[in-house]
Amino acid sequence: MTEELSLEQKKEKMIANVTDNYIQVEKSIVNQLFMKHDLHGTTVGSERENIWSQLFEMIIPKKFVIESSVFIIDSEGNVSKEVDFAILDETYTPYIFRYGKIKFVPIEAIAAVIECKSQNLDATTLEKWAESITSLKTSTVAIARLATSIATGPVATQKATRPIRILCALQENCNDSIKRHFDFTLLATREEEKKTTSGSQKKDVSQRERNERIKIECNTKETLLSWFKSLNFNNESMIEKVLSSEISARLEKTSLENYEVLDENGQNISLMTFNFQLNQLLMLINNPILFPHLAYAELFNRKGGQK
């Protein structure tokens, strides 16, 4: 008769199963990406985008919406290049225009932007894409009810936001000149590793083990305090005393490296790690910046020739 597992053993088995599921999902995503690549080359980029989107749908909380083929606009009339995917909280912020597949979304609503590439990782093209995002400015002309008052400007902890920039691609020609334009790079890799034959230290070339992974890199070593400033005070100075010294110290000694999850061999379980890292950054932004309805009304009045 089989002995029943103890509560601790059940917990350990559950944790091991969740970890293994992350690894298997990662392998499945990579295999799908390379299958499309092997069969069709660069002709089905939209299908590979759908595969990448499944990854984000798996880890992004339901309060966020993942929109495809988005143009981002600011209240000065600047418009980004097309964004493959935008992660946004649409609870408080209206679309500027949405009809069918055409979507113009205000920069104030955007939490993250995702660019998906197959083979053509052109540094100049990606730099221009990134610049079209970073050049957008959030506005502080907002009127909204808070718990204790009516706000007529930004809240103290959030003056100017920016989206987290993510690149998803097959690992081909993705060098540092490309990575520097993104906060995260997700690179699908499919490598063959030589397997050691038992009883011998020599590598047996005839026996190979395939290793499908998504190499996820955070391209900055910033602390959570630096991330907080970057995501909530983009190109703006943070007012002193916004955070208590105790909270600042806690954020200063914590980095995204602390969120890494390793398997029994010490190898990063990259998809699970990314889940915790990205969602921690989204919690630093929390709700979108108060939406400046008046600033956008004035924009379209200016452009339309109204007084």
Please describe the structure with a list of short key phrases separated by commas or semicolons.
single chain; 307 residues; alpha/beta; 8-stranded mixed sheet; two-stranded antiparallel sheet; 8 helices; 10 strands; 36% helix
Number of helices: 8
State the strand order across the main sheet: 3-4-1-2-5-8-9-10
List the helices and strands in order. HHEEEEEHEEEHEEHHHH
Radius of gyration: 22 Å
The structural domain count equals: 1
Count of DSSP E strands?
10
Level of helix content? Answer: 25-40%
Strand content: 15-25%
What structural class do helix, strand and pairing data support?
Answer: alpha/beta
Shape assignment: globular
| Regions with little confidence, pLDDT below 50 for 5+ residues | 200-208
In round numbers, the mean pLDDT is 86
Sheet with most strands: 8 strands, mixed
Write the layout of secondary structure elements.
Elements: H1 7-40, H2 45-59, E1 65-73, E2 83-88, E3 97-99, E4 102-106, E5 110-116, H3 123-134, E6 144-145, E7 150-151, E8 164-170, H4 176-179, E9 184-196, E10 203-218, H5 224-232, H6 245-252, H7 270-285, H8 293-303
Parallel strand pairs: 1-4, 5-8, 8-9
Antiparallel strand pairs: 1-2, 2-5, 3-4, 6-7, 9-10
Helix pairs in contact: 1-2
